[in-house]
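Priority: medium. Attachment 1 of 2:
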């Protein structure tokens, strides 16, 4: 009797997730997924692989019924060194044709599946987003100008203050100052008799 020993390979799995702190509301945070590479993992830069999650099913009495694996999304390897690989999210799969997840998104503990993997050499998504934002800015400015214009000149209201005398004609020249009233007590009788 010949016993064939099979080498059981440990699966590569995500062991840590780190994200950067953004400095503005316009920036989207970047997530790095740190993967522990198993022996002969076959991970290399620009390789897009599946991140899968094992779902345990229990009945109403919490007795285990079984488990299955479901694909959560795709990650793209950006760096490999030794037994550590770093990946970024490439695409999350919609759950319309997949089982629902308690925790949406790729997370620590998800397994890396190399089946149906492929090499992606496209530019990073961040560069595409910046171009899209800069192209949409002039459109926003033109829309704002259009919204601020009144549609009908008759509907616009006059915000000027009414004149003091509405019957008097309005002229461009400012009105002449009126002389101050003379107080009769300030005139001395002696000065009047000397002038005469």
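Attachment 2 of 2:
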């Amino acid at each position: 009797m010949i016993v064939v020993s099979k080498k059981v390979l440990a699966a590569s799995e995500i062991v840590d997730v780190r994200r950067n702190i953004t400095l503005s509301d316009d920036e989207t945070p970047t997530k790095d997924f740190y993967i522990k590479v198993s022996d002969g993992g076959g991970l290399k830069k620009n390789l897009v692989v599946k991140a899968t999650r094992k779902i345990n099913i229990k009945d109403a009495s919490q007795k285990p019924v079984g488990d299955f694996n479901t694909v959560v999304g795709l990650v793209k390897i950006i760096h490999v060194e030794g037994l550590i690989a770093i990946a970024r999210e490439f695409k999350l799969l919609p759950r319309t044709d997949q089982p629902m997840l308690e925790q949406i998104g790729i997370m620590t503990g998800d397994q890396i599946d190399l089946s149906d993997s492929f090499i992606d050499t496209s530019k990073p998504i961040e560069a595409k987003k910046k171009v899209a934002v800069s192209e949409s800015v002039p459109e926003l400015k033109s829309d704002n100008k259009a919204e601020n214009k009144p549609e009908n000149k008759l509907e616009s209201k006059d915000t000027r203050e009414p004149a003091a005398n509405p019957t008097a004609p309005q002229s461009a020249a400012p009105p002449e100052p009126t002389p101050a009233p003379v107080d009769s007590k300030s005139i001395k009788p002696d000065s009047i008799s000397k002038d005469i």
